[in-house]
Amino acid sequence: MDGNKLYIKGPQRMHGELLVQGSKNAALPILAATILGKGIFIIHHCPRISDVKHMLELLEDAGCRIHWEGHMLIVDTRELCNYRVSCSGAGKMRSTVTLLGSILGRMHQVEIPYPGGCTIGKRPIDLHLRGLEQLGAVFEHQEHTLYGKVKMLHGAQVYLDFPSVGATENVLLAAVLADGTTVLHGAALEPEIVELASFLRKMGADIKGDGTPVITVKGVPKLHAAEYIIPSDRIVAGTYLFGAVMGCGEVRLLHVPVTHLGKLPELLEQLGAVVEAEDDWIYVRMERQCRPVPYMVTAPFPGFPTDLQSALVAALSTASGMSFIEEKIFEARFQIVEELRKMGASVVSEDSFALIDGNAKLQGAHVEAKELRGGAALIMAALAAEGETCISGMEYVCRGYEDINSDLKKLGIMI
Ligand code: UD1
């Protein structure tokens, strides 16, 4: 990597075994949850990515102490004293918003800068606020920050119009210390919700129904510190599996909870790959050109994840025919299309649809990562391309991939 650029000479075939890093989307709300208990938390297999670093800056800002030992993270929340999140990292990351529920739960007031994150759509927070308001919180919109307060959070019936991952997390975080029982209807089913609920249970929370659309939380007076292992990242795993499929590779990914992958193994088989999997590993081998996919739509879990849509589009640009993809979660998530076209792909997108005419012989080019998952997908495309590809904007990729260079090297790729 040169500054924020990565150079890859293709084509290269992925082969080998890899222990997949900890999950970004599981780690971030779990770190937010530590605020709810007073004590020393030990979090294993925590990914050392820039979004986690920013979250830790916010926790430090609130008065927590942080210490890393390899991938074991120690968070001491005993001295937490600040309800205001003011540090510069806050506006860079979407997950700042999950601090609303946890800081309100512990401090009864909260002030955060409006959350940032990838430029993949409007990303409003109305569902988060409405959910928290039903538990008694009152919000004031200030010029640069959002201020919330509550005398005492109380249990309520909360209905989400859409199974938002972040809003589900926020309601859980606020409900665990509320007075009475909260029933959340229309909750997200993503594995990260189950991980957050399991972590909160380890802290002493009473939660039932996570992983289903109705979650019941009986508020408890107090939570304590806990120890937890972050699961491996299903999106990082999926990215590498698409990379293997594109370049006729053969990989075995270890420490991957296969149930977190939803229907991805079936899709890889549909593309033409040989797939074997057990509880915590998956093996994929590809010996032929990818088959096209007539229609695929992104959807909340267990549907096909929006976070892997770019990697699928990249893979299908080399498939033996026409594919059609619909993006239903975020409005601006086909940013990879323009970059793939620079590499010779025949892809067009309009509104929430992309039409991919496969059979492209991808060529090395200068391309730009414009957001996290699209950037990683461009790296997978570069592996299948003839000649050198330079990918700029690698800082986006570092938000979620701890050390993609080292992962690729372990999978036999020269960078
Ligand atoms: C999380 C993940 C992200 C993933 C997404 C969907 C984290 C840190 N990020 O993001 O990687 O792509 O789930 O699986 O876990 N919406 C509203 N109002 C709201 C909240 C959401 O309209 O208050 C809309 C969003 O604009 C989007 C859709 O709901 O169109 C899904 O968003 P949501 O599930 O909340 O995603 P995030 O939690 O932001």
Overview of the structural elements:
This protein has 415 residues and is α+β, with helices and mostly antiparallel strands. Helix content is 30%, strand content 24%. The chain has helices at residues 24-34, 50-61, 99-107, 126-134, 165-175, 191-202, 234-246, 264-271, 309-316, 336-342, 372-384, 394-398, 404-410; strands at residues 6-10, 15-19, 40-44, 65-69, 72-76, 109-113, 138-141, 145-149, 157-159, 181-185, 206-208, 214-218, 227-229, 250-254, 274-278, 281-285, 296-297, 322-326, 346-350, 353-357, 366-368, 387-392. The strands form six sheets. It has a four-stranded mixed β-sheet with strand order 2-14-16-15, covered by helices on one side. A four-stranded mixed β-sheet has the order 4-5-3-13, with helices on one face. Helix 1 packs parallel to helix 6 and helix 7 runs parallel beside helix 9 (309-316). Uridine-diphosphate-N-acetylglucosamine (UD1) is lined by residues 25, 28, 94-95, 121-128, 162, 164-167, 192, 305-307, 329-330.
